[in-house]
Amino acid sequence: MKLVNKRILITGGTSGIGLELVRQLSPDNDVIVISRSAALAGELPNDANVVKVFRANLANQAQVTSVANTIVEQYSHIDVLINNAAIQNTPEFLSDEFEFEGIRKEIDINFASLCQLTYLMLPLLLKDDDSVILNVNTGLALAPKRSSAVYCATKGALNSFSQSLRYQLADTNIHVQQAFLPLVETNMTQGRGSGKLTASEVAQSIKQGIEQGKVVNDIGKVKLLRVIQRVSPALAAKIMRNS
């Protein structure tokens, strides 16, 4: 699929990787964003198309349903759905900084809302000749780390969900893809790790993966992680445990 003259819906498109995707896709496509924040003005190149932003808290099921219904009412079809929005809480369960209330919020934003929005967007995705659902995932879905246990679990669930959904939609026009990301330089990862890819680099790789029809798009060091897992799952787990 050539990403030109397409209608693309992106969650979490006002910061980080999502914002970079909007920057790279908006000059040639009709881009719709779902985000908690409406702030986007001044962040895009001058030649970008007008980007429509819908505000919704993805931790709130009623807001997810409401924004989805509004999009269905206003648009005739969607070519690409990019499920990008996610949050990550790093404190461990035994830490004084751990927030019990954050468990539900992390699950809702990272996984539950994604399932809900995907279902609600199917009528628009089914109307096109060739559509794509791209779920943005992470290498932590393959091998979790010590911290961010809930985040890792939601990404593991996303991997299983994406595979099952691909089976369900195999006889339709919708192609289900995943992009597995390494550590990326964003606000969410400040102060953690080294050798990070920039959000711009990762957005470019995601875009290329969609255009090339990659069912599984391993980006950066995730390629190496796959190799290590095949050779020694125990070594992969040891490497990732404290990453």
TrEMBL record:
InterPro entries: NAD(P)-bd_dom_sf, SDR_fam
GO molecular function: oxidoreductase activity
GO cellular component, one term: membrane
Keyword terms: Oxidoreductase
Pfam families: adh_short (PF00106)
UniProt keyword Ligase, yes or no: no
SUPFAM superfamilies documented for this protein: NAD(P)-binding Rossmann-fold domains (SSF51735)
Family: Belongs to the short-chain dehydrogenases/reductases (SDR) family.
Family matches, as PANTHER family: DEHYDROGENASE/REDUCTASE SDR FAMILY MEMBER 7B, DEHYDROGENASE_REDUCTASE SDR FAMILY MEMBER 7B
UniProt name for this protein: Oxidoreductase DltE
Organism: Arenicella chitinivorans
Name of the gene: dltE
